[in-house]
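2024-03-11 09:14:02 INFO worker-7 job=invfold-0412 stage=load source=structure_tokens
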């Protein structure tokens, strides 16, 4: 009886012709790697988009086209945080570059 159970387990794991059934979910996905400058460029582009969104929201508020001021405040706050983060990254990159320059070879 144990051989029947083993055959059923094998038939579930293998196809009709004896080749293993491979699920697409079991295959490791190829990770698309991006270079450092691509990641940095996308980040700064996003900061620019957020700055534009905040500027449009402030213009809409100035013309009276905004019903809810909290939307404007949220857009301006989001752009501010993104810009501060971008400045921090820039500062860290410049600090790292300065440390590399000071290294003796």
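2024-03-11 09:14:09 INFO worker-7 stage=emit residues=105
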């Amino acid at each position: 009886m144990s051989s029947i159970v083993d055959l059923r387990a094998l038939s579930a794991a293998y196809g009709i012709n004896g080749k293993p059934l491979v699920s697409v979910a079991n295959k490791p996905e190829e990770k698309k790697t991006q270079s450092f400058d691509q990641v940095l460029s996308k980040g700064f582009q996003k900061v620019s988009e957020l700055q534009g969104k905040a500027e449009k929201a402030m213009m809409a508020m100035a013309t009276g086209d905004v019903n809810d001021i909290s939307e404007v405040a949220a857009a301006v706050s989001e752009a501010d945080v993104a810009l501060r983060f971008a400045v921090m990254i820039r500062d860290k990159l410049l600090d790292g570059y300065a440390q590399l320059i000071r290294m003796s070879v």
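2024-03-11 09:14:09 INFO worker-7 stage=report msg="Helices lie at 2-13, 36-63, 69-102."
2024-03-11 09:14:10 INFO worker-7 job finished
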